[in-house]
Write a structure and sequence with these properties.
The complex is a heterodimer. Chain A is mostly helical. Chain A contains twelve helices and no strands. In chain A, helix 1 runs parallel beside helix 8, helix 10 packs across helix 11 and helix 11 runs antiparallel to helix 12. Chain A has two domains: 176 residues, no CATH class; 49 residues, no CATH class. By secondary structure, chain B is mainly α. Helix content of chain B is 77%, strand content 0%. Classes of the chains: A mainly alpha, B mainly alpha. Chain A: It is a multi-pass membrane protein. Chain A: It is found in: Cell membrane. Chain A: It comes from Virgibacillus profundi.
């Protein structure tokens, strides 16, 4: 009887974490769908088949580089060139993954490795601002549910864009370009309200990023430098461990 | 050909993502490194927001900026992220003609 209740408790805890993960990932879905549809439309126009463009979403799962990839395929760039450009653009995920995995130390490698593969700017931003779950029982399920919500909406959106073509009027799809930025702002502002120094870290990163772009650096490297150097200001600004 | 490009893109995105999963178990970071890594999310958010937000409508940077300002206000008064996103989309939609 006692075993049975413990088992039940474990199960309801699991369900709770999965539900919470999906709910937390929902804003990402909202931001991803229009962008994924746009990617699907663009990739189709650049001569990729529906299978190819969907497969790219399944295997790459990185918005910006998929847009760039589709564009480069359209203009007939070489494979090596596209792959190197993708690496440069996505190198920032190394820094983000290092930060995220450091938070997930208490979770086993069997969960960490697959979770790391689902890391994007958006899943990282949302997960990183929910560090408490990493310490909770069944916390891995929270991050898994969150990431899968984002992943499937990305794949589904790409596929939809690929079959439907220009479904969304241009004015609306262009307006939706603000969605992910608004989500990033919506994540950052509450943290700044809690601790003002966090805002300073973000502003330093913005300034470094802007400066690097002014100096003619590519977007990918500018974000990498902005993130690393902006984060370095945290060494001084975040006084003690807030764990 | 496109298939080879997809495989290549997949590998170069997977490798930087997965390496940290293996190395954090091997390393014990000093305090200042932990503070650095804990600041990364905020720095990343900053670098992702600006100046990218100006490119929402590349020929009219003020529209993206205003959408961003609306998002800041909505988030500041404590609205849910979803409402912040919807409010910003509506702002840009109404401003663009």
């Amino acid at each position: 009887m006692a075993v049975d209740t413990a088992e039940n408790k474990g199960r309801s805890e699991s369900i709770h974490m999965v539900r919470k993960g999906i709910a937390t990932g929902f804003p990402i879905m909202l931001g991803y769908l229009p962008i994924a549809i746009t990617y699907g439309v663009l990739a189709k126009q650049s001569g990729m088949t529906l299978t190819e463009l969907t497969l790219m979403s399944v295997m790459v799962f990185a918005g910006a580089s998929q847009f760039m990839g589709a564009n480069m395929i359209a203009v007939g760039a070489g494979a090596i060139e596209i792959i190197i450009a993708t690496f440069v653009l996505n190198f920032r995920h190394f820094v983000m993954s290092l930060s995220f995995m450091n938070r997930l130390r208490s979770i086993g490698l069997n969960w960490k490795a697959p979770l790391s593969l689902g890391l994007t700017d958006e899943t990282f931003a949302v997960s990183a601002l929910h560090p408490k779950e990493a310490k909770m029982e069944k916390g891995a399920l929270f991050y898994t549910a969150l990431i899968l919500t984002a992943y499937f909406s990305w794949i589904f959106g790409s596929f939809l864009g690929g079959i439907l073509g220009e479904v969304i009027p241009e004015r609306l799809s262009q307006s939706m370009g603000i969605a992910l930025y608004a989500m990033f702002i919506g994540l950052l502002v509450p943290s700044v309200k809690k601790e003002l120094k966090v805002g300073l870290i973000a502003i330093i990163a913005m300034l470094i990023n802007t400066l690097c772009i002014q100096l003619g650096m590519s977007t990918g490297w500018a974000i990498v430098l902005g993130t690393i150097l902006g984060g370095a200001s945290g060494i001084y600004l975040l006084k003690e461990e807030r764990r | 050909m496109i298939f080879a490009i997809i495989i290549g893109m997949s590998l170069v995105t997977m490798i930087p993502r997965i390496i940290p999963a293996f190395i954090v178990d091997k390393l014990q970071f000093r305090d200042w490194v932990n503070r650095w890594l804990n600041a990364i999310p905020y720095a990343a958010l900053g670098a992702l927001i600006f100046p990218g937000v100006l490119m929402v409508k590349p020929d009219e940077p003020h529209i993206g900026l205003l959408g961003g300002v609306v998002a800041i206000i909505l988030a500041y008064i404590g609205l849910n992220v979803i409402l912040v996103v919807v409010g910003a989309i509506a702002t840009v939609f109404l401003l663009s003609t």
